[in-house]
Amino acid sequence: MATLEGKVAVITGSTSGIGARMAELFVAEGAKVVIAGRRRDKGEQLAAALGPSAAFVRTDLTREADVKAMIGRAVEAFGRLDCLINNAGGGSRPATIAEVDLDDFDGVVAVHLRAVLAAMKHAVPVMAAQGSGSIITVASVNGIRPGLGGLLYSVAKAGSIHLTRCAAIELGEKGIRVNTISPGPIVTGIFGKAVGLEPGEADDNPQYAEAAIAAVVPRWQALSRVGRTEDIAQAALYLASDAAQMVTGHNLVVDGGICAGWPVAVAREDVARFRAAFQAKRTGA
Q1: How far apart are the first and last CA of the chain?
Q2: pLDDT averaged over every residue in the chain
Q3: How far is CA 244 from CA 1, 36, 176, 200, 277, in A?
Q4: How far apart are CA 93 and CA 9, in angstroms?
Q5: Among 44-48, 71-75, 191-195, whose mean pLDDT is lowest?
């Protein structure tokens, strides 16, 4: 039997990138999937490619009415809701504490934190009535380790990780598990969009992001490989499945070792620089 046979999932931000790969994998593993996003053309195209096990609903996650309709679409189309994946997101403009635009902050929080809470709000009654469910939010290593991403994005992602913990301790008695996944840099169009490319160009040219990520991987990650959408989709598959029945309130970090510490080659260079400075001072050189 397929891993998700008989289960129904809603995946936000699934018209491209990580969300689209999740939708493909979940359908392949037996699930029925509601694809939620703003780009109707991309969403309908993906739903058609996945066949009768998928349905698209255009959703603006900053509008609670849209979020409620999204959850309702899952129940209407497939009769239940077993998994909600809060995957939608985007980059944010650079900001500093002293010069931050608070309207920008509100916009980033609306997508990465408020929308997550809204989706939980409307999914929980359905899952509670069933006595089971899995809620997964795609956060980021930026929510754990400052300095790699922008201020606003990092703060919002940190909030989503703590929201997950709060939800997990509340919803456990209803049989609902709540977890986050924190990816490191993953090859998607989000990087191209952040530098001003049109969404279509950014999504259709992942090689741009791959080259950029490959350039920094040796200094950031213990593992030398570049992260791909499949890595995050497989993590979501695990958390959505019955194999994770005892996993809740957890932040599953999928980052090639970024949060573990400096890669040994980087540390080796810095230790050598430290020793050279020490000896130079000692000898007066």
Answers
A1: 71
A2: 94
A3: 17, 24, 12, 35, 50
A4: 31
A5: 191-195
Active-site hit among 56, 78, 153, 220? 153
| Residue 8 φ then ψ, to 5° | -120, 130
Euclidean distance between CA atoms 154 and 108, whole angstroms: 10
Mean pLDDT, to the nearest integer, of 91-107? Answer: 92
pTM above 0.90, yes or no: yes
- 280 to each of 14, 43, 178, 273, 284, how far by Cα in Å? 56, 62, 54, 11, 6
> In 3D, which of 41, 40, 48 has the Cα closest to residue 66?
40
d(CA 67, CA 42): 19
Contacts of 63 (CB under 8 A, 6+ apart): none
CA dist., res. 26 & res. 24, Å (int): 6
Told to judge if 238 belongs to the known catalytic residues of this protein, a careful annotator would answer no
Q: Which residues have a Cβ under 8 Å from the Cβ of 84 and sit 6 or more positions away?
A: 9, 10, 71, 119, 120, 123, 127, 133, 134, 135, 136
Q: Topology of domain 8-186+227-254, per CATH?
A: Rossmann fold (3.40.50)
The CA-CA-CA angle for residues 174, 179, 184, to 5°, reads 170
